[in-house]
Amino acid sequence: MRYLPLSDADRSEMLRVIGAGSIDELFKDVPEDARLKGPIHGLPMHASEMAVERHMAALSRKNMVAGDVPFFLGCGAYRHHVPASVDHIIQRGEFLTSYTPYQPEIAQGTLQMMFEFQTQVARLFGCEVANASMYDGSTAMWEAILMAHRITRRNKTLISSGVHPHYVKVAETLAQFSEDALAVALPELDADPDTERLIGKIGPETSAVVVQYPDILGRITDLTPIAEAAHAAGALLIAVVTEPVALGAIKSPGEMGADIVVGEGQSIGVGLQFGGPYVGLFACREKHVRQMPGRLAGETVDAEGKRGFVLTLSTREQHIRREKATSNICTSSVLCALAFTVHLTLLGERGLRQLAQLNHARACEAADRLSAIPGVSLVNDAFFNEFTLKLPIEARPVVHSLVERGVLGGVSLGRLYPDVDALQNGLVVAVTETVTDEDIAAFEAALKEVVQ
Amino acid sequence: MTINPSGLRPSTPANEQGETHTVAGNRALMLEEPLIFEIGNNEQTGVDFDYLTPPPQGEVARSAGEGAGGQTPSVGFADGSPKGGVARLGGLERTRPIGLPGLSEPETVRHYTRLSRQNYAIDLGLFPLGSCTMKHNPRLNEKVARMPGFADVHPLQPQETVQGALQVINELAFWLLDLTGMYGVAMSPKAGAHGELCGLLCIRAALEARGDKREVVLVPESAHGTNPATAAFAGYRVENIPANAAGRVDLEALKARLGPDVAAVMITNPNTCGLFEPDMKAISDAVHAAGAFVYCDGANFNAIVGKVRPGDLGIDAMHINLHKTFSTPHGGGGPGSGPVVLSEALAPFGPLPFVAKMPDGSFRLVEEENAGEEHPNAFGRMVAFHGQMGMFTRALAYILSHGADGLKQVAEDAVLNANYILRSLEGALDAPFAKSGPCMHEAIFSDRGFANDVNTLDLAKALIDEGFHPMTMYFPLVVHGAMLVEPTETESRASLDQFIAALRSISERAKAGDQSLKGAPIYAPRRRLDETLAARKPVLTYREAEPAQAAE
């Protein structure tokens, strides 16, 4: 077996050193009647690299690959071009096959990268500090709600109607088992995200207001009035960013007063991968850092006075605090954080702004052409690289008809909100730099055909 | 004179300390590397774009600022710009610099390559971090995960376009059930601790469905910190159960504590001392008799995979760290993946979504909208989308590569290697449970016998100088100065022998009170780091030095 270095001669000699007559003697604590007598039933015997590759390649070919067709899906996962050097770096064995940096003297590579990542995320979000990653955006949002609860000692959270419904479901699921009460709402196919209604619900018991920016329909709205209203009531503003590339073009949530900003980092450096692994981003004000979940790298010096980095403020974490920890998170998403950091370093501020401008330009172009189709209208006044179209018919079957025409044409709101009649004609369309003029033309032609 | 002469002798003796200062601060292959914030700048970029005529230098950062005051700004791009060059950003254009330095591609590659060389890794040597299972990561699995049909598909694509991806999830789920003898599996949890949460929520939902309010979860004192943290996260009160002298759960103490307020017992098996719980079935029977459930922390499943099925031991829920047993790479701290296998009693409460195989051979996601008919008792949803697809492809390739015979051999070799270390070192280091019999996949030692002022940390740091990653230190808490050594099955005998020789030598020094251990490591990129300073005055992000005087 190619992954196992021991030979049969090694095994016999090692058993002799151990003083055991057979390998089974080493398993004597496992009750005899529970021990399997031979190789487990059902699973085939070992296979060559070529055979496994062939099997997996056959499964891979059963999927419609985003890069092979005109592609317009978003809603929390975005297809951007990732430079080849990103994947090269994350496949360096010293990053790929290392562990959580518990021994800092031989883990400065990961620790310095975490420190760079934390700084990039904090600056992008307009916050003072950020952690070294969470699992993904949806779990980061729930952790932010819990953190706000700890800070304000209140347990009522208002979640805006514009938050990704999967994120809301995750929070609702976990709130069943905690002391948190959530107020949620459904979006409407309207250019106005209904900020005023949200503000009107803020009360003296509100712990936090959660707003997605840009929101699930692609709308962008000034968070300042929400932050002011929340702060006036002693509550926090949590902003959720599922498309961080947007922050190369629009103001950061931190600039507009958000106290905690969380997000999904997938769109920078990490591919679509059918939903995971992704990387949760988590940033906040420095004064709240001791209530933060997750790992943090911090700067220090070594015994010779040289600058170095270590995991720090671990007294918040489960391996020290056990049941009193701020979170149960242990393994997070550091390799995806590395991909994020390498991609963002390649872009730099100039590249990120260009990328954001290009995304917005492509989206404006597509929005104009698609909304010119008779019966199709654009819901958004403002958007970044994703907008919602209102179709004359239900969008869900339209998406399937588009597939038949070789176009992956957006996410129907019916997929995300199957029970909400008022949303069934909504189609959310994302347009990134990977979309060509030909792609837009193909989408336009196919959509015209399908809705007529 | 020949070019590149060889066989030369050093003409001067080495410096006594073995090191001299260099102008650059580098030492040959050990290269110092600043932060990107110290070497990059906001104008440099390593990415070129199509469809974009780049504005002149400096224009980019400024262009957005012109819109302040309600006017619609020009977004400053030419080719491909929206009609009239008008942005539709709702007047929210970013006006201030962000502070994100860029580097060209060669500089970026060099920066991160230099950083990578300051890391220890499995690819470099033995990484015996107990309970973490640092085994070789097969490169086929990396190749498979990057196949376009897995890497470049969107989670919300219509299901008819992702049948292969859904089949991967279903196939892996099938083999996980086969290997564990369980009834159902939740694939979406993102890592081990997330899987623990999923399992406990299944238990909580099952109890609530029968109208049974229970408040306590029992956790052995040797458990991973995630166990009590997860129980608290799930809304339970945590109580410890003690270990007996043989390093196992004290069955009588456990039985005495069981009662109508206990929801679940969380057991790690094999446990964190590297020992199998021989009373597992009796524990399960007692827990079930008290109306509670058995949660098994499957972090150490690699010791028994293919040898015994947790389902045959009465376990109700167990997470499987794909990044441990099934060798998806740890990546410096994730991503992981933590599918949870469930007993028949708990499976109906598992979270959404999951993949179902239809009678016609196609695959379908069961989500909120169609769960009603097929899975009405799901406790909810753990994550956006469907779980760690990139880990599923790797783990499936790993399982198929090893097969039934190979996985059995994996467990046997892992246990053989650990026992080889235990018996080779029990004379040199105190091994508190060695007399009670063989260990499983990891061997535990204590600091007993070390000179007064030398501790486990010193020994660990000295191992770094010997070219090894230290073992897990000071865990589990039930052993004083614990050293938990997990070699894994992917180490050769020669590699184990070298490690044993190094550890034996260092332990002799520790017993003799060798003060030079206090200064270790001396050959690593950094000497011991000041963790107290880092925590007392946290510096968590880079701040540019303040200008000498304020501008205004």
Topology:
The complex is a heterodimer of chains A (452) and B (552).
Chain A: H1 8-18, H2 23-26, H3 49-60, H4 84-90, H5 93-96, H6 108-125, E1 129-130, H7 137-152, E2 156-159, H8 165-175, E3 181-183, H9 195-201, E4 206-212, H10 224-232, E5 236-241, E6 260-264, E7 280-284, E8 297-301, E9 307-311, H11 318-321, H12 334-371, E10 377-378, E11 386-390, H13 395-404, E12 411-412, H14 413-416, E13 426-430, H15 437-451
Chain B: H1 36-39, H2 59-63, H3 105-116, H4 139-145, H5 148-151, H6 163-180, E1 184-186, H7 192-209, E2 216-220, H8 226-233, E3 237-241, H9 251-257, E4 262-268, H10 280-289, E5 293-297, E6 317-319, E7 340-342, E8 354-357, E9 363-366, H11 368-374, H12 389-425, E10 443-445, H13 456-465, E11 472-473, E12 483-485, H14 493-512, H15 531-536
Task: List its salient traits.
heterodimer, A: 452 residues, alpha/beta, Aspartate Aminotransferase, domain 1, Aspartate Aminotransferase, domain 2, 2 domains, 4-stranded antiparallel beta sheet, 15 helices, 13 strands, 12% strand, globular, B: 552 residues, 7-stranded mixed beta sheet, 3-stranded antiparallel beta sheet, 12 strands
Q: Can you characterise this structure?
A:
Chain A is an alpha/beta fold and 452 residues long. Helices cover 38% and strands 12% of the residues of chain A. In chain A, the strands form three sheets. A seven-stranded mixed sheet of chain A has the order 1-7-6-5-4-2-3, sandwiched between helices. The model of chain A has no long low-confidence stretch (mean pLDDT 97). By secondary structure, chain B is an alpha/beta fold. Chain B folds into two domains: 254 residues, Aspartate Aminotransferase, domain 2, CATH 3.40.640; 133 residues, Alpha-Beta Complex (Aspartate Aminotransferase, domain 1), CATH 3.90.1150.10. In chain B, the strands form three sheets. In chain B, strands 1-7-6-5-4-2-3 form a seven-stranded mixed sheet, with helices on both faces. Chain B has a three-stranded antiparallel sheet with strand order 10-12-11. In chain B, strand 2, helix 8 and strand 3 form a beta-alpha-beta unit. About 6% of the residues of chain B have low confidence. At the A-B interface, helix 1, helix 2, helix 3, helix 4 and helix 5 of A face helix 3, helix 4, helix 5, helix 6 and helix 7 of B.
